[in-house]
Design brief:
The complex is a heterodimer of chains A (243) and B (243).
Chain A lengths: L1 E11 L2 E11 L4 E5 L6 H8 L7 E6 L2 E2 L7 H6 L1 E4 L11 H11 L5 H14 L15 H13 L5 E5 L7 H16 L4 E4 L3 H7 L2 E6 L2 E7 H6 L4 H10 L3
Parallel strand pairs in A: 3-8, 3-9, 6-7, 7-8
Antiparallel strand pairs in A: 1-2, 1-4, 4-5, 9-10
Helix pairs in contact in A: 3-4, 3-5, 4-5, 5-6
Chain B lengths: L20 H35 L3 H15 L3 H15 L2 H9 L3 H27 L3 H9 L4 H16 L1 H14 L11 H12 L2 H29 L10
Helix pairs in contact in B: 1-2, 1-5, 1-8, 1-9, 2-5, 3-4, 3-5, 5-7, 5-8, 6-7, 8-10, 9-10
The chains are: A alpha/beta (243), B mainly alpha (243).
């Protein structure tokens, strides 16, 4: 579904953020990307739907090349859902308007259809009663669930999560992870940048470990948590799993 | 000081034969209002376009925006009006220049366009700052949903940016009204012009300019109240700047 092949990215001629990254996410697969801050994991996931440009290599989604000038990027992006660390709901629109906007302006759905679809997804994430409120009136956990619903409203073929729980209070993390676990169990193709190793253990098929712009480890979940091959990944795991 | 106050002067007929001195001032007031509103509309339209250009990632767009703003904001308004009114017709091909000079109401059009473009540079800078103050993730989230750049601005960035810059825009609106007085120098009989004409005909300088002062004050108080109401009408529930 998502093929990442020999991707290199430089911020400046002397600063390389991604070094020869190659991996893939198969249909229905859940891949967790972890690693220390500044390792390039957020940058990599933003390259997948071309929110960040890269200079070298190729990424294809469902056979379509992301870094091809002929590719209709808005159309491609509309088929890949994305959830951000800081939710990024549109503050001047109500919750239901947030869910409707792209359905109507990008997919060309009518107001009624978009509302129905939006309400169904809000019900699914347990926020049907909040439909007429504005984002600033919701808690962080609720906003992130709305953001997931907004992405799902586009009927995506895959979902990208960029540290979806990093900006949340501890007690709100599980309500967001619950939604993500349900999605994973339904067979959604997912690429998730996160430090939530509990989530990884529960639903991930593969775990990718990145350090200094390189994919250091790309292994099945059982192998990764059992005996990571690289010292760097072992160190990382021992630090974050020690508590 | 030998000055005879005469507040009845407003009710006396003016020498142009069209009503009283008060009617003369009212005619000037009307010209001031129409000129200011026209200039403000021009300032908003061009300011919005140039403000967007300045916020785009494209180097060329930023550069065009930069040149525009620095051209219009670094020259005194008086000089700009002289350039448009006296110099431009001479620089154009003979027939075009002649057409421009013989245009009825030339001072009005020149003032509306000249003041409008001068103010547009200021609107552009503020709008660009407003867009720049939005979290970077807003543009990314909108783009990730599949919206085109134009749609991202229309539905996500501009509605928030304009809300944020409403208070400074109020000041610019007031400045536009006050700057319209400069048009007296190219022969537009707006409020200041009318007051001066009244002084020349009647020698009642204090009465004439007292009335003009009051009229400017009233227009601008109406602008302030109007903008306040607008701010309240578009405030977002729960949002920091909202009430």
């Amino acid at each position: 579904m998502i093929e990442i092949s020999h991707v290199n990215k430089w911020y400046s001629p002397t600063f390389q953020v991604l070094k020869d990254c190659t991996t893939s996410v198969a249909k229905g697969e859940v891949v967790v990307v972890c690693g220390p801050s500044g390792s390039g994991k957020s940058t990599l996931i933003k390259c997948v739907n071309a929110l960040e440009p890269f200079q070298d290599g190729t990424i294809t989604i469902d056979g379509l090349k992301v870094n091809d000038p002929k590719t209709n990027l808005p159309k491609l992006r509309s088929r890949v859902g994305m959830v951000f660390q800081h939710f990024e709901l549109f503050p001047h629109l109500t919750i239901i308007e947030n869910l409707r906007l792209a359905q109507q302006k990008v997919l060309g759905r009518g107001q009624e259809e978009a509302t129905a679809k939006g309400m169904k997804l809000l019900e699914r994430v347990g926020l049907k009663e909040q439909a007429q409120k504005f984002p600033a009136q919701l808690s962080g956990g609720q906003q992130q669930r709305v953001a997931i619903a907004r992405a799902l409203a586009m009927d995506p073929i895959a979902m990208l999560f960029d540290e979806p729980t990093s900006a949340l209070d501890p007690e709100m993390i599980s309500e967001v992870l619950d939604v993500m676990v349900d999605l994973a169990r339904e067979g959604m193709t997912m690429m998730v940048v996160t430090h939530e190793m509990g989530f990884a253990k529960k639903v991930a098929h593969r775990v990718i470990f990145m350090d200094r712009g390189e994919i250091v480890e790309d292994a099945k979940k059982e192998e990764f948590f059992g005996q990571p091959r690289s010292d760097r990944a072992q160190q990382f795991l021992s630090k974050i799993l020690s508590h | 000081m030998n000055y005879t106050w005469n507040w009845h002067i407003f009710l006396e007929p003016n020498p142009t034969g069209a009503g009283t001195y008060f009617d003369m001032l009212l005619a000037g007031l009307k010209v001031t209002i129409v000129t200011s509103l026209s200039a403000w509309v021009i300032a908003l339209i061009f300011g919005t376009i140039v403000g967007i250009l300045r916020s785009l990632p494209s180097k060329l767009a930023t550069w065009i925006g930069f040149i525009y703003v620095e051209f219009f904001r670094n020259m005194p308004l008086l000089v700009q009006l002289f350039l448009w009114f006296f110099v431009l017709p001479e620089l154009l091909p003979r027939t075009a220049g002649l057409w421009l000079k013989q245009m009825p109401n030339a001072p009005f059009y020149t003032a509306a366009v000249g003041i409008g473009l001068f103010m547009s540079a200021r609107v552009a800078v503020q709008l660009a700052a407003g867009i720049g103050s939005l979290p970077r993730g807003q543009k990314m989230a909108a783009t990730a949903l599949g919206l085109t750049t134009l749609q991202v601005y229309r539905y996500v960035l501009l509605p928030m940016a304009f809300r944020i810059i409403l208070p400074p825009l109020t000041s610019e609106f007031l400045n536009t009204v006050k700057n319209s007085a400069v048009a007296i120098t190219i022969g537009l009989i707006e409020l200041t012009g009318a007051a001066r004409a009244m002084q020349e005909f009647s020698f009642q300088v204090f009465e004439a300019f007292s009335a003009a002062t009051l009229m400017y004050l009233v227009i601008n108080i109406i602008v302030v109240i109007g903008m306040r109401l607008l701010e309240r009408a578009v405030a977002i529930p729960g949002y920091i700047t909202g009430k």
